[in-house]
Write a structure and sequence with these properties.
By secondary structure, the protein is of the alpha/beta class. Helices cover 39% and strands 28% of the residues. The longest helix is centred in the first third of the chain and has 18 residues.
């Protein structure tokens, strides 16, 4: 009897060990309010959703902080399994699997709270002194549309500084990710001094997996990710930071 019990115990321990033998390594850069350092580790709502998903499929997940450009190199080479957050692009799809979208975000214009104008179209910002972080993808977006809109685009490396310039009357509007702007306003006590005026573009964000990661494991992760949204767990995590779920 003792021998049978010992054998059964060994089998269960072996199965548990095997079930936890899978590991996923993700890279991410700080991008508050989506991803940020928390107690010396990568945290934030999207990180919490990923760790919850890993737990559901009984996989150990290790998350490292890395620049997005370096992360792309490592994912492409298979040195790490994945990176987040990424938007869909045809070129990356050649070497990256995309998960279901984990959230939707938008880019647009903030104006001083004292500015009561209704901004209905892009042309409403014609003649504005527009602050934007740059050089960046956001500033390049403004450069592409500026021949039509005719704005005075002013580059800066300080998003919060741009919002403060709005209050001081040095800028007429700021072009920035809506969630990033609202987060900066909350942290800096500017919620009654600046407002979001108009959405220019929306984008879904995904987790990107290296195509050198087994497709079976990626599919398993994706199915579990969907379940975290269907159960409401992921939506609740995002909602606590005012973020919009796609699913």
């Amino acid at each position: 009897m003792r021998l049978i019990i010992s054998v059964i115990s060994f089998i269960f321990l072996s199965l548990a060990s095997y079930a936890r033998s899978e590991q996923l390594i993700f890279n991410s850069a700080e991008f508050s309010p989506f991803v940020y350092q928390e107690n010396g580790k990568m945290g934030g709502p999207v990180t919490d959703v990923i760790l919850l998903t890993c737990k559901k499929i009984n996989v150990d997940c290790n998350i490292k902080q890395e620049s997005f450009s370096k992360s792309e190199e490592q994912v492409k080479a298979g040195a790490v399994n994945g990176v987040y957050l990424v938007s869909w692009s045809e070129s990356r799809a050649e070497w990256m699997y995309y998960t279901l979208p984990v959230l939707r975000t938008s880019w647009g214009f903030f104006v001083p709270a004292t500015d009561k104008k209704d901004y209905l179209t892009l042309s409403s910002f014609s003649g504005h002194r527009v602050g934007v972080f740059g050089p960046s993808s956001s500033s390049k977006t403004l450069d592409r549309i500026n021949p039509v809109v005719n704005m005075d685009i002013q580059l800066s490396k300080d998003d919060l500084g741009n919002l403060k310039k709005l209050i001081q009357g040095q800028l007429d509007s700021v072009y920035i990710n809506r969630d990033v702007g609202l987060d900066l306003m909350r942290q800096s006590g500017l919620t009654d001094k600046v407002r979001f005026a108009w959405t220019h573009t929306e984008r879904n964000y995904h987790i990107g997996f290296s195509k050198k990661t087994g497709r079976k494991l990626v599919n398993q992760f994706n199915k579990a990710l969907r379940k975290t949204y269907e159960s409401g767990e992921a939506r609740e995590i995002l909602a606590q930071r005012g973020l919009e779920s796609v699913m």
